[in-house]
Specification:
Multidrug-efflux Transporter Regulator, Chain: A, Domain 2, 71% helix, mainly alpha, elongated, Globin-like, 2 domains
Amino acid sequence: MNLGEIAAAAGVSVRTLHHWDAVGLLRPSGRAPSGYGVYGPVDVERLRQVLTYLELGFALEEVRALLDDPDVDALDHLRRQQSLLAERIAHLQAVQELVHRAVEAQMGADDLRAVFGDEDPSRYETEVQERWGDTDACRQSRQRTSAFGRDDWLRVRAQGEDVERRFAAALRAGRPASSAEAGALVEDHRAWIGQFYDCSPEMQVDLAEAYLSDERFTAHYEAVAPALARYVHDAVRASACAR
């Protein structure tokens, strides 16, 4: 790779690469007939390590010393970076949780009542953490809702209630759970969930199972329309099977 290509691949400027070359941090191992530097696979791997250490907060001189240490091989670098990245991720998750708490604190009692009625959403927090705390879906949900304010929650709630009302209307009209109309509602249902986390059809099926197995879900849907929990469950499964 020439200077321009490796600069583009790394997302740094050509001037930066010239500086790294001058200080001995990253030097091209080959030369083109024109005299310009050519970066080979070994250089590309060193570049990856440089970028990782810089991202972790190391100074240029510290990175150069680490990479030039003859007693440290490539696997040692990977293990060190893996450990440091795990620490960084844990730190960022802790910061994210603090921000999440701060946002929640900004929603006063009147805001929470307007969004959730008399139900306290925090009562489920321990259960959510125990059952799904380590999943991508839970992490995505915390990240996406961390910036939600009252208006955002009211909008999301209204959208969810609209989907439920249309499911209930289809049920009352006698539309089969396997019908095209019910299938379209399943897509709207998954899009609504997608505001919290990436929901695949398979994940939607797992969620729909809870509509029957968890009495809280069942009661919620039955309050909208009798037999609605079963209808939504069957529509989700029918849509997934039709794919």
